[in-house]
From TrEMBL:
Keyword 4Fe-4S carried by entry: no
Gene: glpK
Its EC number(s): 2.7.1.30
Pathways per UniProt: Polyol metabolism; glycerol degradation via glycerol kinase pathway; sn-glycerol 3-phosphate from glycerol: step 1/1
Residues bound to sn-glycerol 3-phosphate: T10, R80, E81, Y132, D241
UniProt cross-references to InterPro entries, sorted A to Z: ATPase_NBD, Carb_kinase_FGGY, FGGY_C, FGGY_N, Glycerol_kin
Protein name: Glycerol kinase
Keyword Transferase: yes
């Protein structure tokens, strides 16, 4: 028997089978189209997301030679905040999904900030009043798709983050639910009461009848339409991908921290049963919710990590495959002398400057491809340092960081991360921690996995990286980064 995890990421959809030991037994993956219709706009076609989901699930089952009855449960984890609005009757999205990176609603956020609403929003949601989150992305669709607002008010449209849209489709339109982690990323969910909040709904002009029911992360979300995979399969786990990674890294205890390097980078600290309010623009969010008990987290969100590597590869065509970036950086050493600030879609934590755009600084006549690539890789380490500094100012100073995601196969990145941060970097054997985390959540519900304690035993170190830089080198290089960031900021 297996758990089937659907990991619907920003650039690709994956289906991963996990066995009882929490080891991947099969994986299928498919990329899908990114739409950039205007400066700061990022969209996905939810139909394509759905098609890739069905394809990868069928593929991984066929490759393993298994049927629906071999799958104990399905877990869904997803790119968070990305907003889908669809017709309740036909199931058709009314517009392309507006992706978490999309900045089109920054002016609306500014307006609401000017009206003095920022504190109320952040007190209730733990987030900032920012275009990153779903609320203004829903409002934009209702205001810009003809007739949408009237249909929404008449109860004819549904909203969902990607988990909810996939759940709706997987269950043949029978289940309109989400989990507390995804709800906590919308700017509409009160993280203290764990309910949708009418004052927030009124502020963002979102009709309550569009919203999904919010469940624990491990819950009975519904069963798949038997037509899809040749039999019903229970869907018993849902979590936003970054929270799923926290769970997959078994950061169950207060003070445990992980950072995931995929399209963006997200550092999440487990803060236990109390929401910790940051003084430094870190987000307070739901880490996971089990048996009605919420574990809170502090999060630093960086919008561009792997996208920088993709841009260097596809935009500038500096190399054919991300895998070669490690050997290029090894030729340069531990410091390229060039700073690349990848503010392609503005700066996230701790700056939150949606209008900033990227820059490259410190170019000399002998700067070449390998230096640019190394600066791109290193930008991820410096951005992580920015988050660590913000957390330190909130009184949190971890000594080690568990890392995962597509970028951490790169040993240069992990070593440089340790040098730049001055702490130990721990890389687990299973770096598919996002998919693993939601497999744990789904499996706990159906008795496939026993307990959190038993899951803790699954975590295995692949490699540990220790810092080699001295304090002086660390602060000199970091000062150069801060100077570069300062030059792209628009809000000083
Ligand atoms: N060897 C590598 N070195 C650096 N970056 C890499 C490497 N391999 C993949 N990446 C980057 O990692 C990202 C993919 O990570 P992944 O976790 O699959 O992303 P997501 O879940 O956001 O779609 C891509 O942006 C890619 O450029
Ligand atoms: O697709 P990822 O893995 O970069 O994750 C996206 C985040 O969930 C956005 O908040």
């Amino acid at each position: 028997m297996y758990i089937l995890s659907i990991d619907q990421g920003t650039t690709s959809t994956r289906a991963v089978l996990f066995d009882k030991q929490g080891l991947p037994a099969g994986v299928a993956q498919q990329e899908f189209t990114q739409y950039f219709p205007a400066d700061g706009y990022v969209e996905h076609d939810a139909e394509e997301i759905w098609a890739t989901t069905v394809t990868v699930c069928k593929k991984v089952m066929a490759e393993k030679g298994i049927s629906a009855s071999d799958i104990a449960a399905i877990g869904i984890t997803n790119q968070r905040e990305t907003t889908v609005v669809w017709d309740a009757e036909t199931g058709k999205p009314i517009h392309h999904a507006i992706v978490w990176q999309d900045r089109r609603t920054a002016p609306l956020c500014k307006e609401l900030q000017a009206a003095g609403k920022a504190d109320m929003v952040s007190d209730k949601t733990g987030l900032l009043l920012d275009a990153y989150f779903s609320a203004t992305k829903i409002a934009w669709q209702l205001d810009n798709v003809e007739g949408a607002r009237e249909l929404a008010e008449a109860g004819k449209l549904r909203f969902g983050t990607v988990d909810t849209f996939l759940l709706w489709r997987l269950t043949g339109g029978k289940s309109h639910k989400t989990d507390a982690t995804n709800a906590s990323r919308t700017n509409l969910f009160n993280i203290h009461t764990q309910e949708w909040d009418q004052e927030l709904l009124d502020l963002f002009r979102v009709p309550a009848c569009m919203l999904p029911q919010v469940e624990d992360c491990s819950a009975d979300f519904g069963v798949t339409d038997p037509e899809l995979f040749g039999g019903e399969i229970a869907i018993t786990g849902i979590a936003g991908d970054q929270q799923a990674a926290l769970f997959g890294q078994t950061c169950f205890e207060e003070g445990e921290i992980k950072s995931t390097y995929g399209t963006g980078c997200f550092m999440i600290l487990n803060t236990g049963d109390k929401p910790l309010k940051s003084k430094n623009k870190m987000l307070t969010t739901v880490g996971f919710r089990l048996d009605g008990k919420t574990t809170y987290a502090l999060e630093g969100s960086i919008f561009n990590a792997g996208t920088t590597i993709q841009w260097l590869r596809d935009g500038l065509r500096l190399f054919p495959d991300a895998v070669v970036t490690e050997s290029l950086a090894n030729k340069v050493g531990d410091n390229p002398g060039v700073y690349l600030v990848p503010a392609f879609t503005g700066l996230g934590a701790p700056y939150w400057d949606p209008n900033a755009r990227g820059g490259i600084f410190g170019l000399t006549r002998d700067t070449g491809i390998k230096e640019l690539v190394t600066a791109g890789l290193q930008s991820v380490c410096y951005q992580t340092k920015d988050l660590m500094e913000a957390m330190a100012a909130d009184g949190v100073r971890p000594k080690a960081l568990r890392v995962d995601g597509g970028m951490v196969v790169n040993n240069w990145v992990c070593q440089n991360m340790s040098d730049v941060l001055g702490i130990t970097i721990d890389r687990p054997v299973v770096t598919e921690t996002t998919a693993l985390g939601v497999a744990y959540l789904a499996g706990l519900r159906v008795g496939f996995f026993e307990s959190l304690d038993a899951l803790k035993q699954h975590w295995q170190s692949d490699r540990r990286f220790e810092a080699k830089w001295d304090d002086e080198k660390r602060s000199t290089h970091y000062a150069g980064w801060l100077d570069a960031v300062d030059r792209v900021r628009t809000d000083k």
